[in-house]
Write a structure and sequence with these properties.
Blueprint: H1 19-26, H2 30-37, H3 46-56, H4 60-69, H5 73-76, H6 80-94, E1 102-106, E2 111-113, H7 117-124, E3 134-135, H8 136-142, H9 146-149, H10 153-167, H11 174-187, H12 189-197, E4 206-211, E5 217-227, E6 230-240
Antiparallel strand pairs: 1-2, 1-6, 2-3, 4-5, 5-6
């Protein structure tokens, strides 16, 4: 489709089934499938979307991504009052995690907000002059301390590019996200390489190695909690491994694995 994550300036080509084969497998005409690809048929039925998902053997996250491409923005938008309430409630919840090493709010445009002093020290090496918010993708690819903070930087970089691609499937946020993607596409060869893998991610839970200010490295378990009334606003907490309970249904695999589970929601 014309406005999702496959932007014209990436010239992305996806290997796999030919258009005719996919249309046949999904039980739709080649002409209709071509219109879907080109954004000239923007409201396919649920049956058509499901048939394409089955034909492509898509994972649950990839299915959600495809459905979001065809969802009208006004059907997705939570009221502004709920977004404000989500930030407030998740910030309050963060106070109940005194053992957290890093805490921040992640919004749907991938801004890290409400960075508390310990988090700012880890991310920027400073608390007095450090910002209280920053864009996640910009930080990972452009800030000089990002590779020091995220010891396994390649894993983190692949994750945030996949998160950006998933976020771009939501038309509401194109004005905020497309400039970020275009800027990094033009300045970072590694961003371009990861973008063309088109390996989408969502923020869930796992274990990540974090570089500490004293030069030591700690393995921290990160968890993600979404507000039940606005699941696009999330609290991300990095906890000492022994203090982090594994959320029910989360993926406890090594941080090298793709994060495929929906984050737990605040009660």
């Amino acid at each position: 489709p014309g406005s999702p994550a496959s932007l014209e300036w990436t010239h992305r080509k996806v290997p796999g089934l030919r258009r005719e084969e996919l249309a046949w497998a999904a039980g739709i005409s080649v002409d209709y499938y071509t219109k879907l690809e080109q954004g000239r048929a923007s409201h396919p039925s649920e049956a058509v979307i499901t048939a394409i998902c089955v034909a492509l053997h898509l994972s649950p996250l990839d299915q959600a991504f495809l459905r979001q491409l065809f969802t009208e923005p006004e059907r997705l938008e939570p009221p502004a009052s709920e977004r404000i309430r989500a930030v407030r409630d998740l910030t309050t919840l963060s106070a109940s995690l005194p053992d957290a090493v890093m805490l921040h709010i992640l919004d749907r445009t991938l801004w890290l907000r409400a960075l508390e002093p310990t988090t700012r020290l880890l991310m920027f090496g400073d608390t007095d002059n450090a910002p209280s918010e920053i864009h996640l993708v910009d930080y990972v690819f452009t800030h000089p301390r990002a590779r020091r903070l995220y010891v396994d930087w390649e894993v983190k970089a692949a994750e945030v590019v996949g998160m950006l691609q998933l976020a771009l499937s939501d038309e509401r946020d194109h004005d905020a996200l497309v400039p970020v993607a275009q800027r990094l596409w033009s300045t970072s060869a590694r961003f371009r390489e990861l973008w063309q893998n088109f390996d989408i991610h969502t923020k869930g839970s796992g274990v990540r190695r974090i570089g500490m200010p004293d030069g030591s490295i700690r393995s921290l378990r990160y968890i993600t909690v979404a507000a039940p009334y606005d699941d696009t606003t999330k609290l991300v907490a990095y906890l000492p491994d022994e203090a982090a309970a594994s959320p029910e249904g989360s993926d406890d695999a090594d941080s090298q694995a793709r994060t495929r589970d929906d984050p737990p929601k605040a009660s």
